[in-house]
Amino acid sequence: MMWQIVCLISGQLLGFVNYIPPYATVTNQEISTGVNYGSGTAGIRDETGSHLGDRVSYDKQLLNHAKIISRLSLLQHNMTFTQEYLKKCVYISVIGNNDYINNYLMPNNYPTSRIYTIDQYAAVLVKQYSKQLTVSILTIFLCCIVYLKCYNTLYKLGARKIAVFSLGLIGCTPSEIAQFGTDGRPCVDSINDAVSRLNNRLKPLVDDLNNDLSDARFTFINLTSISTPPEGVTLPTEPCCQLRADGQCVPNSIPCPNRNLTIFYDGFHTTEIANTAFATRSYTALSPMDASPYDISHLAQL
Ligand SMILES: *[C@@H]1O[C@H](CO)[C@@H](O)[C@H](O)[C@H]1NC(C)=O
Hints:
Blueprint: H1 2-13, H2 28-31, H3 58-76, H4 79-88, E1 91-93, H5 97-104, H6 112-115, H7 118-134, H8 136-147, E2 161-165, H9 174-180, H10 189-212, E3 217-221, H11 223-226, H12 272-283, E4 291-292, H13 296-301
The protein binds 2-acetamido-2-deoxy-beta-D-glucopyranose (NAG).
């Protein structure tokens, strides 16, 4: 969920005047400036978030991207131009938080925590994510068959500058703290431990992808690192609104007077000031831990 906002604020840093338009309503005129495929509660796994209703899973987002490429190439009338164009784009991929929040951590709604240990689950997620990041070429190929004529230079349609965000500190969200308790610690350590099993696999994945696909540049953005204040200025993790049991705000309740003073708006979602800090620091890294091997400003310039 959070990723859309991070993505948009990163978009502002890259010099866009408006927010990147959402896939559902993007017009032909707008396509060439970028498209936001994000979907609340969506995950790497197809079933993630299903108890909350409709959402666009990562696989479906990739299919939507393939449709956008088809539209773009029809508009631009020049395959070479479109291929060159897509190579210059920056692709920001932030997915996976819901595979814990709205899947693994909800044993009454999803069986994953009975099927997999935390380590196995992290491995299964990273395996699927790795396919989605790379074999999306295949998805695009299938989509071209379904929606349009096929091009024989499909590989060149693919992304070449991809920022892969780690998951956040889910164990520090007000909602998980309220649900699981912290035993006097600031956060739910067992959840952060589960999440770190996945994060610890993402950096090696990015390194492998950079080695295997030498004409592409992948980079790893470490949300744990960029959400740690550099000067020890820690904002409280109390939410800004009164929470319902599901972690969302009680409708029509009065929010906190100054949302610039909290990290969380509701039980899960960070405030604009926190999102701006994350986006700024993923754009220009403050520490070598924040982004590896490139921050987004360098990725854009490559
Ligand atoms: C297609 O785009 C390429 C790359 O920008 C350009 O060099 C070429 O002249 C274009 N072809 C046509 C027919 O406009």
